[in-house]
Structure formats: structure tokens, C-alpha cells
Design brief:
heterodimer; A: about 1200 residues; alpha+beta; 9-stranded mixed beta sheet; 8-stranded antiparallel beta sheet; 22 helices; B: about 180 residues; mainly alpha
Chain lengths: ~1200, ~180
């Protein structure tokens, strides 16, 4: 079975399983939505209608409410734009409702008629002229996306009974996908039911009938009892024509009892439509809509509806844009059932005088619009301008709705930038505008969703630029055109300067639910396909205060605009916080929208340019990108991507306010600011000082630093420029505090690892000369397990995408980076770091070293002199005593990939030292043992063998305090309590014993014993102690790999090879090759191999192997994750070539070996390989024939070990 | 717009259904495709192809969960694209990693799956017997190809905990499938 086939089979998981996981994906912390649930009683009403089948009424309804006072804009992209989320606002005791934005059951369609509305048949029981003062509004029971299975089944049973079937005897099918629909068939009667009704199809032998009337009469005569109506009334509707000119009618029946209002509602919501099939069958379609009434809503007259229609207040889009009163030819009442709310509406038939259709098709085109028949104030967004009845009154800042005031600008932050980035005055604003091109209009928009700049990458056709770093994209709805005085309902995406991460002073970015008035331009020079419009100044916040709508001016004052305008704001300034507690919008004026629009238009028209027509709302397509729209024929469809953020931890109160300044254009520019010698230090934050602590510690820096920086205690662990480990603590002040955050630079926390370049190595406080050279060291893949710090994959962020490090000499300097890796939330969820590049630390440090050296900014401590010398000894290595009975030199090659390194002059090899040590003053007690790691290792093996890790009993060799006391007496001195701690732990279960211990070589090792053996196929065997032939071991190795590859850990792949003699005592070794199978690209070239991966593979081969010794015995030298626990890197040492190693052998430069007395020279060496010793040092292992030496025979080999680094770096201990 | 309406539009052969479905689910489909293919361009193609296939399959299909329905189509198309792509070169995606993890269930050798639907249903049955956390983690990892880090963040546990959870689930699944007679 192929893994891919298995993956494909998962497509047949049930919808329920997939949907459950999908739901969990969206409700986890990464995409958590703030939701508050409230309940309120709906006014129960059915306007007193007495009907046989009334509308169901339930007592309460759950409605989600947006939190209007959310203090922060979060980067929680919902991924899916869900317009019209209900807001539980009561208007005169009735819930405010929403109008579907782009869809209406009745509106938004074109209709062909031959002559005109007189072609249409059918009349509503309630005419438009007779509309009552109030009509009920209902809430759809399945909105959004709910399915009521019981209701569907109820509908099926109801209809089945009506047709004489026994519901309990039906074999009901659920349909292909869950239970959206149910169907059954019995006795020639097919019944299928859905959420809102059911269909019954029966065979019929219809006589010749006189049109639709005759058909209706026939149905009433023969099927009246099947209609489930007490007093069925007939309705013959339709008359529209299709493209072939054929006319279509429908025949339906509804409850005829009660008054006109009752009949109207029954017809709309619970009618029965009967149609004839081509095969002579009859289909009865029952509309069985049950919904809760939200109450009786005041209605508008047909005349008022026409006025609203002219203002653009209607549901549904239409191809045509003819909304002139004189073209309205028919108005009728209906219910719009297309959205979350079912409300009465006027269907308005408007003749489209476009002659083309009439000429070509000999038919007339009518556009049908749906205007709500209830008062607009009950709609969430009517889009209508301020009512004339409302007289605007002066007000003070305290009149601004309290809940929006989330805090005030306290002066603590700098006010570095004007509110408008570019234009200081009207003159300046208009100076470069080309009015021969286009000027837009003055629009009221409502922000629906805040999009991160990164999401813009996902907007089709849009390529973000550096400027987008400092901007925010919004998904918004244009509600009103103040110039044209027209309501609109169009979705747009627009971009404005200032972001949550980088804020303009006094101009915080908007948040969901905010409304603003924007003056939009189209600039022919700078506008393009993606950026159809530009918007500079004139951004106003829209507020309703005391029943009137005001436009609140924020940011830069424009005196010539204010001149003559009535300012309704009596206070000099007023602050209203939108998205940030510390960065409120500061208002300096409040204006009547109409008056302001008139003034603006006056200025625009009088700019001695040629004003163009206002852009019609038809320019706006749904989801069009740009300031207001695209001028392409095809609108660009956009959608936000659901990106994954990776919350590490949060400080909820941290907010960002400080603008980011000083964007470097290049590395040159950055480095030109630097002076003196530089060092590059990788360090880990170990403590975060409070400001008070920082000031007390370093008073001299207090004023300059701590208002804008945070002081950290840090542990320096690596000098990347000199390639040497470090181990000291220092204080470092980094940009950004909890209250004042730099763009993309949230304050760090304990455990964060950073790389900074410092220009002064002497000061007690090391302050990065420029934050621009501050890198965050972030391990993205955890691939530092084998290679130490030099192989850590890091990502870095440096303020601007414009500064990007690329060099063909360093292929790992600019590694591919996925979108999900780019954004990482560190200390606050609203100020994530956005990484710009990923590289290995090795490549980055090599690149920086070269760059800085060439600029004279870095001088190595001395070439290589910084590397400490170390000692090697064969005794402690347990090396050199072994004899290999390989049979021939060929068998000595067991797959060690070291030759791929092709070591030559100038290459380096990492040298490690062991973390654990023996305290000789404490009777050789082993220190730095990570016992938690040992326990975790046991749990790992337990899981691997299928045991519950919580169910194993771990035993250890720790001793009790009493035993320690006894031991102390024996040795005659007080032993440390640490002696009580174990150095070996084990568990035994179901015939499997696993022990993890610290070996004499100060390494972790796991020994596994399986009573049942390895269950190998016939002819396969391993046996170090009890004998196995090479052939037997070869037969076993694949099977062992398959069964025990998991021992390597981390889901890494393994390889196996056979070690041992030709004739017997062969065992199988397994290890993880970091260099996998290389699959050629299309052009035949192979992917580049990272040299470090080869080194890691040699290390794995040497130190992290897993040996299958005898049947059921496994020795894991490589306990997963142990390498970094037991070794730390000393440095990258200049390596010697194999030839140099041979020369050293001849000069006696080898480590102690039992083979020593044989007097071998380089001429006797038959095989060479590079291995790592248990001391963490690379060695050349030189094999010489041992035939004749101390009883050895032909085919036996002894070894010499020669350190693989230059001799000046080590001492050989005799 | 609610799914039912969009599906209704598909049924009525109203081309606006494509636009509505795209508006609503483009990001969702993209995410599914990107996780598998790690390629934006390919993901865009998958979005279009998914909608096209939905157009051709509704009717006769009438999905009650449009999102899941589109997600399954997108995943199927993405895996097909992955197969084609992998023949040419290595595909560095989360899907590749998750695929490797399945090595302890399936051997990548032996014969072909005769009936992927039956196998999928068997897996579904098994998932019905494990905990909510295990089930959602498994589906998120191997259906949506989400990263361990993402899953861990959602569940509020460490990556290694998720890894262990997935491992146990895989082992259980393997045992279950073997009992059902599947040749893995």
C-alpha cells in the first residue's frame, strides 16, 4: 500500500469528522473569535392572523454580538468574510436586522417581458397600496449554515401522511452528503424533503386541460385533500419569458382563510406549487417554512419605497442601473426570503430602456429590485444619510459615545509624525493631482475586517511593496456617496497608511465596525491595475451623536477647508480611541456630512482643473481591490488567507504606539552608521528588568534609554564572528517596551534567543549600535540537534524588506521560507514579528564576517587563536583497543558518508565537549545529569512499544538519604545529596525491558531487551555475542529498519548496515542519515547538499547509532534528543586532510592504541574513515592489517585514531 | 451568503454561484492546497479547478456542508498535483512530512488499494473510537496537512505532546486496520 494512496483514502472520511476538525482549526487560539452570546425575548406575534398552518413562534433566539468596545485590533484573520453578522441592537424595542448585501430572492434579476407588466399574471392577496402599518419579520431558523434534521424528517413525514403513506414504514435515504435532504419512495409516490419544504411526485394521467386555469381547477378537484390546506386559494403567477420567448407560469395554492394580510403571509411562506412533468407526472412542492417572528415592524408606503429605491436602498445587485422613477412600471408586495431575515419587501419592476435587447430579441428588459417594506431604521446599515429632521447641535467631547473612549493620549509617546504623511495643506495636496484624470468621491465606509499587510500577498494580482509594511488593508463596505447623495452597498478593500504595528501619531488604524468618510482620488499616474485610487487626507470618523450623524476630523488640520464650516465640536480637542489605548484619534472638529461634502466638492471643482464625473457606484464590484475599485472590466476577486500564527506567549496589556523610524535602504547604509569594531553575539534572555530596576541599575542611561527600551539580563553563548562558544552574562537594552513597541519589535521575554551585532565590547551595558542589525534567533525547525549552534536555522527581521541579504557565495543565506513561518507572535498578539529571511546561522555569520571584515568593522581576535585547545586520550575514549575481523578491507566500509566532505585545506570540523562531568572532589560523582530528559526518553520508548507512557513503572538506581549516610560513612566523608539522584532508570513491561543510563563515557544510552526476540524472517539473525553470519545479518537489516526505525526519533528516516566479521558475530547498525535520497531536478541537476548535513550524518553514524546486538538486544547510543543534552560545541576547528593524518601516524601523532606495539606505518593502512569519538572530537580512523599480531589472522584489522583537526589545538594525554 | 443559497444557485445553474463560492471559500481552499503543495501558483489553480469541479458535480450532488465538500475536492486535486510534481522533484511541504509519518502505518510497498473509499470509511470508524483531541489532531495533520506547531497551539499543548498523540493514534489505527484485514 502506498502512503499517497492511504492519504487519498482519507478523502472518504465522513463530512462530520472533517467538519469537526475544520471547526477546531478555526476555534483554536490561532483564529479565536471573540464572541458574546446574549439572549433576548423576541416579541411573539403573528399579527393576529388566524391561519390553518401558521408560522411557528419560538420564545427566544441566540444572536452573536460583536464587541463594540474591543480595545485592540487583533491579527486574527477569520479567513472568510462574513458580512451582515447580526448585531443585537433594539430599535424601538424591535431587533435591528440586516439586509443581504449581494443577494435577494426577489431583487437583482433581469426579466424579459413581451409587452410589459401586463404580461404578468397573478396578484398578491395584499396589494402594495393596502400595506398595513406593521408586518412581521422572521428570522431564518437555519442561518448561518445550520441544518435541522428533525425538521427535515418532520416535513417528510407530514407530506407522506398527506399522501396516505406510513412514515414509519418508509425507507428513508439521507442523500449523498449528510441530511440536507431526505427522500423515500413507496407505492409509486416519491417524497423528498428539505429544510423548508417537501416535494411529492406521483404519476398522473392528465386529461386535456384549458391552460393554467384548467390545470388549477383540475388539481383542486382531484387533489384538494393532498394540499394540506383548509381553504385552498389559487394563485397563477408568472408570465416572464425565457430567451426563446416562451412564457412561463406557476400554479400554486395557499390558505385562503383569514384576511388579506394572513393570506399574503401564507402565500409567501407556506404555499403549495404544482407542476407537470414531461412524463405526465405531477409534483407537489410544499413550502413549509417555520420561523420565529421577531415582531411586527412599522412599514413604509409604496411611495416611500420608491424614494428609498432612488436613494439606493434595496437588496440585491442588478446588472442595470436604471433607477429613475418614471421607469417604474410595477410594484408589488412580497417577502424576501433569501437571507437571515425574512422581511416584507416591495418588488419594483423597472423598465430598462436599453434598446439593444428590444432590437435583438423583440422583448423588453425589466430589472426587478427589492426594497424592504419596513422602515430603514430597523436595518443594521441603511446606508442613508442624516435625516433632514435631525438638527445638528453643538456637543462636547464628552458626548462622544463613552464606550469608544478607551483611553487618552498621555503624552508619553513621541509625536514624531504628522497625521498626514505627505500633504500639509490643500494646495500641497492638490498640487500633484491630475484632475484631467479622475477624482473620486467622498464615501462613507464601514470597516468589516482588518487585514494584515501580509494577507495582501494573497489578494489576487496584488503585489505588496515596502510601503505596505506601514499600512493596513481593510475590507470594508461603501455605504454612502456624499457627493452624489446616494446610498451604496458595495464591498471594497482599501489600504491606508498606519498599521497596528506602525502607527501614525494620532491616527490609529481602524478596527472592525469603525465607520469613516474618505475622499478618494484616482490618480492617472500612480494608479494602476492594483491601485486604482489614492487617498491622502480628509479622513473623518463617522459618529452618530444625539440622533445626528457627524464627521469627526482627525489628524492634520486643513484651515482652508474649515473656513466657513460649522464646527459642532465645542471642545478644542476630543480624543476617541479606536484601535489602541495609547494612540487615540484626536478630533479637532465635527461637521455636518452634507455641509462638509458640499465644501469639499466646491474645493475639488474649483481647483482650476477639469473635474470629472463622480464615479458611479457601478465601478465597485464586490471585493474589488484598491481604493474604491478597479477599472478593469473584470473585477479582481479577493479573499483573505487564513494564515497561521504561532502564539508563544502573550502580554495582554502590551500595546504599540511608537512609529518606526529610520528605514535602511541597504546593508551599506546600515553599516555606514557603525563605527569601531563589531562583535556578533548570540545570547539568550534570562531576565527582563522592570523600568524601575533598570534605572536603578544604570542611572546614567535612564533618560536616554529606558523610556524607549527594555533592559534585559542575557547569557551570551556564542560569538558568531569568531566562531567560539561564550559563557557570560551581560545587560542589554533592546528597542521597544511593553508600552511603546517598535514595528515588529515587541519586547522579548525570558528564553528568547537573539543575535545582535555590538560595536563596543568593553561597556558594561552593551547597546546595539543600531537596531537594524538586530536579529532574532529563532529555531524554526529544531534542526540544531546534531550540529550545535552553527546549524540552527534562524529567521531574521530587519525593519524593511528592502534590506535583503543575498550572496551566491552563501547558498544558505536566503532559504525558502513559507508564509506560516514568517509571522510569529511573541509577546503580544497584536504586534507579531514578521520575519524577512531565513538562513543558517553558519551562512549568516560567514556572510556578516566577510562583509564587516571588508569594511574594516571587524577584526578577528586572531585567526584561530580564539579556539581553545583540548586534550584527547585514548583511555577515556575506549578507543584503539579494538580488532575488526572483517575478512577483507572491503567489509570495513559500512556506509559512513564522510568522503562526501572531501576535506581539504581550509575546511573546518566542529569539536564538541561533553556536558556531563565527573567531580573528582566528590568521588567522581557525575554532574549535570538531566534526569527529566532520561524520564522523557523512557516515555518515548514506552510509546514506541505501544505502552501507555503514564502506565509504566520507572525504577532507578537512586539511593535514599539513609543509604547516602551509610555510604558517606564508608568513604569517610560527607557526600553530596546529589548522590541520591539516579544515573540509571528503567521500566519493564510485557517482556520488554528498557533502561536509560549515563555511561562511563558520560553519555546517555538506552539498552533494550525484548524477551520475544526480533521476530525476524527465516534466514535472518543478528548476534554480536552469540554469533550470526554476515548473510544472516544482511537478511535481518531491512526488517529491523522497518520495525524499529522509530527508535531514531523525530520521525527521522534511518538506514541500516551490517558490522562484524565475515563468518560470524555480525550485528546491524541503524542511524539517521541527514542527507537523504537526492532526487534530480527536471534539468538533471541534483539538489545542493549542505555540508553540515554530511557532518551531522558522520556524527550520527559515530555517536547516535542503534545497534541490534543479539536477538532481542538493542543498544541505543543515540537516544533521541540526547546529543544536545550531552555535548556542547567548542568551536569549528581547522581540519586536516586524510593525507596529513597518515603523516601524523608516521610521526607518532596518534592517540593511544593497544595496536601500538605492532609498529605500523602509513604504508600499512588499508582503509580510512572519519568518525567522531565519544569525546566529541573528530578522528581519522586508520585501519591496518593485524595478521600475525597477538594471535590475529588474515582479515583482522587494528586501528589508529588521529584527531582530524590541526595538532596545535589539542594535546594527546599519555 | 449562506451555503444553502449557494448550493441552490449551483443547482439552478446560476453562474453567480461560482463567484459566491469563491468569495466565501477561496482562502479556505487555498490553505488546503498550500499545505499540500507549498506553492502559491499551484494553489490558485487548485482553487479554480475546485470550483470548476463543484460546478460539474452540483447537481447531481447536493452537499449539505459546502465547505467540507469543496475542501475534499481541493484536497483530492492537490494530492493528484502532488503526485505529478513529486515525480519531477522533491516537494518541500508539510504534506511531505506528514506523509513520511505514515510510514509506521503503511509500508509504501505491496499492492494498490483496491477501494480507497472502504479504507477511508474504516479509518473514519476507527477515529470514531478515539478521543476528540486525537481525532481532530489526526484529521488536521493528515487531512489538512497542518503543522505540528499549529495543532499544538490550537490544543494548547506542546509539539511533542501532539507528536505522541499522533503516534499513539497511528499505532492504534494500524492495529485496527490489521484486525479488519487490511494489508498494510
Amino acid at each position: 500500500m502506498k502512503k499517497l494512496d492511504f492519504m487519498s483514502s482519507l478523502n472518504h472520511l465522513s463530512d462530520k469528522t472533517v467538519a469537526e476538525a475544520a471547526e477546531a482549526r478555526e476555534t483554536g487560539p490561532a483564529a479565536k473569535k471573540s464572541r458574546t452570546w446574549i439572549k433576548y425575548a423576541a416579541a411573539a406575534a403573528c399579527v393576529g392572523i388566524v391561519v390553518a398552518a401558521g408560522i411557528g413562534v419560538s420564545r427566544s433566539v441566540d444572536i452573536e454580538r460583536k464587541r463594540p468596545d474591543s480595545p485592540e485590533v487583533t491579527y486574527e484573520s477569520t479567513g472568510i468574510y462574513e458580512p451582515g453578522e447580526p448585531v443585537p441592537v433594539l430599535v424601538d424595542g424591535l431587533p435591528r436586522i440586516a439586509m443581504p448585501q449581494d443577494y435577494s430572492e426577489n431583487g437583482g434579476r433581469g426579466v424579459f417581458l413581451k409587452n410589459g407588466p401586463e404580461d404578468l399574471r397573478g396578484a398578491e392577496p395584499l396589494s402594495a397600496e393596502d400595506i398595513p402599518e406593521k408586518l412581521p419579520v422572521y428570522k431564518s431558523p437555519i442561518y448561518p449554515d445550520r441544518v435541522d434534521v428533525d425538521k427535515i424528517r418532520g416535513n417528510l413525514d407530514t407530506c407522506a401522511k398527506a399522501w396516505g403513506l406510513d412514515p414509519s414504514a418508509l425507507d428513508v435515504a439521507d442523500g449523498v452528503y449528510q441530511t440536507q435532504k431526505m427522500s423515500a419512495e413507496s407505492g409509486g409516490i416519491s417524497v423528498s424533503a428539505g429544510q423548508f419544504g417537501a416535494e411529492v411526485t406521483v404519476a398522473a394521467d392528465l386529461p386535456e386541460l384549458d391552460g393554467e386555469d384548467g390545470f388549477a381547477e383540475y388539481i383542486l378537484k382531484n387533489y384538494a385533500d393532498r394540499l394540506m390546506l383548509g381553504d385552498p386559494a389559487v394563485s397563477i403567477d408568472g408570465g416572464e419569458r425565457d430567451a426563446d420567448g416562451e412564457q412561463h407560469f406557476t400554479v400554486s395554492f395557499y390558505e385562503g382563510g383569514g384576511g388579506a394580510v394572513g393570506q399574503f403571509i401564507n402565500k409567501e411562506l407556506r404555499s403549495v406549487t404544482v407542476t407537470r412533468g414531461e412524463d405526465g407526472s405531477l409534483t407537489f412542492s410544499y413550502s413549509l417554512r417555520d420561523a420565529e417572528s421577531l415582531g411586527d415592524y412599522p412599514t413604509v408606503s409604496a411611495e416611500e419605497a420608491v424614494e428609498l429605491f432612488e436613494q439606493g436602498f434595496y437588496a440585491g445587485a442588478s446588472d442595470g442601473d436604471v433607477r429613475d422613477r418614471e421607469n417604474i412600471e410595477k410594484i408589488e408586495l412580497s417577502y424576501d426570503l433569501g437571507g437571515e431575515y425574512w422581511y416584507p419587501c416591495y418588488k419594483i419592476w423597472v423598465y430598462d430602456p436599453n434598446g439593444a435587447i428590444e432590437r435583438v430579441m423583440d422583448m423588453k428588459l425589466y430589472n426587478v429590485y427589492c426594497v424592504p417594506a419596513i422602515e430603514p431604521r430597523y436595518f443594521e446599515e441603511s446606508g442613508l444619510s442624516t435625516s433632514e429632521e435631525v438638527r445638528l447641535m453643538p456637543f462636547s467631547s464628552s458626548d462622544i459615545p463613552e464606550y469608544r473612549n478607551l483611553g487618552y493620549y498621555d503624552g508619553a509617546m513621541s509625536d514624531a509624525k504628522p497625521a498626514t504623511l505627505y500633504d500639509e495643506s490643500l494646495e500641497e495636496l492638490f498640487s500633484d493631482r491630475d484632475f484631467n484624470a479622475q477624482i473620486g468621491s467622498f464615501y462613507k465606509v464601514r470597516v468589516n475586517e482588518v487585514l494584515d499587510g501580509g494577507d495582501a500577498l494573497w489578494l489576487n494580482g496584488y503585489t505588496t511593496g515596502a510601503q505596505d509594511d506601514q499600512a493596513t488593508f481593510y475590507r470594508a463596505t461603501v455605504l454612502y456617496d456624499y457627493f452624489a447623495e446616494k446610498a451604496m452597498h458595495k464591498d471594497i478593500i482599501f489600504r491606508m497608511a498606519g498599521s497596528v504595528k506602525m502607527q501614525e501619531s494620532g491616527s490609529p488604524p481602524y478596527t472592525s465596525g469603525d465607520e469613516a468618510a474618505l475622499l478618494l482620488f484616482r490618480d492617472s499616474e500612480v494608479s494602476d491595475f492594483n491601485r486604482a485610487f489614492k487617498c491622502y487626507a480628509f479622513v473623518y470618523d463617522v459618529e452618530n451623536i444625539g440622533g445626528g450623524e457627524y464627521l469627526l476630523a482627525r489628524g492634520q488640520r486643513v484651515p482652508e477647508l474649515e473656513d466657513g464650516l460649522t464646527d459642532y465640536l465645542t471642545d478644542e480637542t476630543a480624543s476617541m480611541v479606536t484601535s489602541s489605548t495609547y494612540n487615540p484619534a484626536v478630533y479637532h472638529g465635527a461637521y455636518d456630512p452634507e455641509e462638509l461634502a458640499e465644501k469639499l466638492k466646491e474645493i475639488v471643482d474649483g481647483a482650476e482643473k477639469t473635474p470629472l464625473e463622480n464615479l458611479s457606484e457601478g465601478r465597485f464590484g464586490p471585493g474589488v481591490l484598491g481604493f474604491g475599485g478597479s477599472f478593469k472590466e473584470e473585477p479582481i476577486e479577493v479573499a483573505a488567507l487564513e494564515y497561521s500564527s504561532e502564539p508563544v506567549y502573550e502580554r495582554i496589556h502590551a500595546v504599540d504606539t511608537v512609529p518606526c523610524t529610520g528605514i535602511p535602504e541597504s546593508l551599506d547604509e546600515v553599516l555606514n552608521e557603525m563605527s569601531g569594531r563589531l562583535s556578533g553575539i548570540a545570547y539568550e534572555i534570562t531576565y527582563v528588568y522592570s523600568r524601575e530596576e533598570a534605572e536603578n541599575l544604570h542611572e546614567e542611561f535612564a533618560d536616554d534609554i529606558y523610556s524607549m527600551r527594555t533592559l534585559y539580563r542575557a547569557h551570551a553563548f556564542y560569538d558568531v564572528l569568531n566562531d567560539r562558544p561564550l559563557d557570560y552574562y551581560f545587560d542589554v537594552a533592546g528597542w521597544g517596551t511593553e508600552d511603546t513597541q517598535e514595528d515588529g519589535y515587541p519586547p522579548y521575554a525570558v528564553g528568547d534567543r537573539l543575535l545582535s551585532f555590538f560595536n563596543d565590547g568593553d561597556s558594561e551595558i552593551k547597546v546595539p549600535k543600531s537596531k537594524l542589525l538586530e536579529f532574532m534567533l529563532f529555531c524554526l525547525k529544531g534542526t540544531d540537534s546534531d550540529g550545535g549552534e552553527t546549524d540552527v536555522k534562524i529567521a531574521y527581521h530587519i525593519d524593511s524588506l528592502r534590506t535583503r541579504f543575498e550572496s551566491p557565495a552563501y547558498p544558505n543565506l536566503d532559504l525558502e521560507m513559507t508564509e506560516s513561518e514568517r509571522e510569529v507572535i511573541t509577546t503580544t498578539k497584536n504586534n507579531p514579528i514578521r520575519f524577512t529571511q531565513k538562513s543558517t546561522l553558519r551562512s549568516l555569520s560567514d556572510f556578516m564576517r566577510t562583509e564587516l571584515y571588508n569594511r574594516g568593522l571587524f577584526v578577528p581576535d586572531s585567526e584561530g587563536a580564539s579556539l581553545p585547545t583540548f586534550r584527547v586520550t585514548g583511555e577515556t575514549l575506549s578507543l584503539g583497543g579494538e580488532i575488526y575481523s572483517a575478512g577483507s578491507a572491503e567489509n570495513l566500509d559500512t556506509g559512513n558518508p564522510w568522503r562526501q566532505l572531501d576535506i581539504s585545506e581550509g575546511d573546518t570540523l566542529p569539536v564538541y565537549e561533553r556536558v556531563m562531568s565527573r567531580n573528582l572532589e566528590q568521588n567522581g560523582m557525575i554532574e549535570n545529569v538531566d534526569r527529566e530528559f532520561m524520564r522523557e526518553a523512557l516515555r518515548f520508548y514506552a510509546i514506541g512499544f505501544g505502552f501507555d507512557p503514564d502506565g509504566i513503572e520507572i525504577e532507578d538506581n537512586g539511593i535514599t538519604p539513609e543509604e547516602l549516610e551509610e555510604l558517606s560513612e564508608k568513604v569517610g566523608e560527607d557526600l553530596s545529596e546529589e548522590y541520591c539522584e539516579p544515573t540509571e532508570m528503567s521500566f519493564e513491561k510485557d517482556g520488554i525491558k528498557v533502561s536509560v543510563r549515563v555511561t562511563d563515557a558520560l553519555l546517555y544510552r538506552a539498552d533494550i531487551s525484548i524477551d520475544a526476540g526480533f521476530d525476524l524472517p527465516e534466514g535472518a539473525k543478528v548476534g554480536f555475542y552469540f554469533g550470526a553470519t554476515r548473510e544472516e545479518a544482511e537478511n535481518a537489516k531491512d526488517d529491523l529498519l522497518m520495525k524499529y526505525e522509530w527508535l531514531i526519533g523525530n520521525n527521522d528516516a534511518g538506514v541500516t548496515s551490517v558490522n562484524g566479521t565475515q563468518s560470524g558475530n555480525c550485528f546491524v547498525t541503524m542511524y539517521h542519515p541527514c542527507v537523504g535520497e537526492l532526487i534530480p531536478y527536471d534539468d538533471g541537476t541534483l539538489p545542493e547538499i549542505d555540508r553540515n548535513d554530511i557532518v551531522k550524518t558522520v556524527i550520527n553514524f559515530s555517536l547516535n547509532s542503534i545497534d541490534f546486538m543479539d536477538e532481542g538486544t538493542i543498544i541505543c547510543y543515540g537516544v533521541p534528543g540526547a546529543f544536545e543534552k550531552q555535548y556542547r560545541k567548542v568551536g569549528d576547528y581547522p581540519a586536516i586532510t586524510p593525507e596529513e593524518a597518515l603523516r601524523l601516524l608516521d610521526s607518532g601523532g596518534y592517540v593511544w592504541t593497544a595496536f601500538d606495539e605492532s609498529g605500523k606505518t602509513s604504508a600499512d593502512v588499508e582503509y580510512v574513515e572519519l568518525v567522531y569519538g565519544t569525546d566529541g572530537v573528530p578522528y581519522y580512523k586508520l585501519y591496518c592489517s593485524a595478521a600475525g599480531w597477538r594471535g590475529c589472522t588474515e582479515g583482522d584489522y587494528g586501528v589508529y585514531y588521529v584527531p582530524a583537526v590541526k595538532p596545535e589545538y589539542y594535546e594527546i594525554e599519555e | 451568503m449562506q451555503d444553502e443559497v449557494i448550493v441552490e444557485m449551483f443547482w439552478n445553474r446560476n453562474e453567480a454561484a461560482l463567484k459566491e463560492a469563491e468569495n466565501k471559500y477561496k482562502s479556505y481552499i487555498s490553505k488546503v492546497a498550500v499545505n499540500i503543495l507549498s506553492d502559491l501558483e499551484d494553489a490558485r489553480e487548485i482553487v479554480n479547478e475546485t470550483l470548476f469541479r463543484a460546478w460539474n458535480s452540483i447537481p447531481p450532488q447536493r452537499p449539505s456542508m459546502l465547505r467540507t465538500y469543496l475542501g475534499k475536492i481541493a484536497r483530492e486535486l492537490s494530492i493528484d498535483a502532488y503526485r505529478t510534481k513529486r515525480r519531477k522533484k522533491r516537494v518541500a511541504s508539510e504534506f511531505t512530512v506528514s506523509l513520511e509519518e505514515l510510514g509506521d502505518i503503511v509500508s509504501d510497498g505491496g499492492g494498490d488499494i483496491l477501494d480507497g473509499k472502504l479504507l477511508g470509511e474504516a479509518v473514519d470508524r476507527y477515529l470514531g473510537t478515539v478521543s476528540y483531541e486525537a481525532r481532530t489532531a489526526f484529521v488536521q495533520r493528515y487531512f489538512f496537512a497542518d503543522t505540528l506547531r499549529e495543532i499544538a497551539a490550537r490544543q494548547g499543548v506542546s509539539e511533542s505532546a501532539v507528536k505522541s498523540l499522533l503516534y499513539r493514534t497511528r499505532q492504534g489505527l494500524k492495529s485496527y486496520l490489521e484486525k479488519e484485514g487490511w494489508q498494510l
